[in-house]
Amino acid sequence: MILWLRSLLFLLWFLLVTTILSLLFLPVLALPRGATVWLARLWAQLTFWGLKVFAGIDWEIRGRLPKSAVLVASKHMSMWDTLALYLALDQPAIVLKRELLRIPFYGWFLAKAAAIPIDRGAGARALRNMSEAARAVLAQARPILIFPEGTRKKPGAAPDYKPGVAGLYGQLGVDCVPVALNSGVYWTGFLKRPGTIVLEFLEPIPPGMKRDAFMTLLESRIETATSSLLP
């Protein structure tokens, strides 16, 4: 009962913060991108404050944070991952489904602040467009964030890494930094279980590896480290 109540309090906080910021800062969309980035970080920080106060969820970062233009490939278990990585990294551009940009308010801010959209029905053209957008981001010395499985996975679920991450890695010629996490243990849909979520940055994979070797190494590093973080 206490877990349910604490989760409800956090949900109410999250809805309140999201609604107020969306309405008050809608004019920010007309300003330079930096203003939207500031707003997005404020939203994430307030969300995490509510998580800690109401749901008892804190977080910690392990490993070395990437400070340059790199490709960051992260495990994905919950909405928490996107918020945490946006706070941890320096203005990352997030590879995501184009459909998300159609969501009122959330999608509008995402498109302005951090998006590299993918049209999954466009085939090879989608990879070309994604690569061009990614190069523009790297030219600004910003990192690119991708979730290589393309969707959220429950803790312990069988991995399903998609080839898009290998396509980006091969075309961009930059380090790929794998990321492990255990957010799905604590952020389980509506219920939020108290504890400390770990976000772990792993040893970078240098550019130039063959596609199959890269995919094998990436999956091995992320899955091994993630498994060690699970109960």
- What structural class results from the helix and strand content? alpha/beta
**How much helix is in the residues?**
40-55%
Total discrete domains: 1
For the record, what is the CATH homologous superfamily label? Glycerol-3-phosphate (1)-acyltransferase
What would the principal axes of the Cα set say about the shape? globular
What is the element string, with H for helices and E for strands?
Answer: HHEEHEHEHEHEEEEH
State the name of the first-level CATH class: Alpha Beta
For the sheet with most strands, the description reads: 7 strands, mixed
In angstroms, what separates the terminal alpha carbons?
23 Å
In the predicted model, the low-confidence regions spanning at least 5 consecutive residues are: none
Mean pLDDT: 91
Radius of gyration: 17 Å
How large a portion of the residues is in β-strands, by DSSP E? Answer: 15-25%
What's the gist of this structure?
Helix 1 runs antiparallel to helix 2 and helix 6 (164-172) packs across helix 7 (211-229).
Can you put this structure into words, describing what you see?
By secondary structure, the chain is of the alpha/beta class. The protein has a single domain (56-229), classed as Glycerol-3-phosphate (1)-acyltransferase, CATH 3.40.1130.10. It is built from seven helices and nine strands. It has helices at residues 2-24, 33-55, 79-88, 106-113, 124-138, 164-172, 211-229; strands at residues 57-62, 71-74, 93-97, 115-118, 144-146, 176-181, 187-188, 191-192, 195-201. A hairpin with a 2-residue loop joins strand 7 (187-188) and strand 8. The two termini are 23 Å apart.
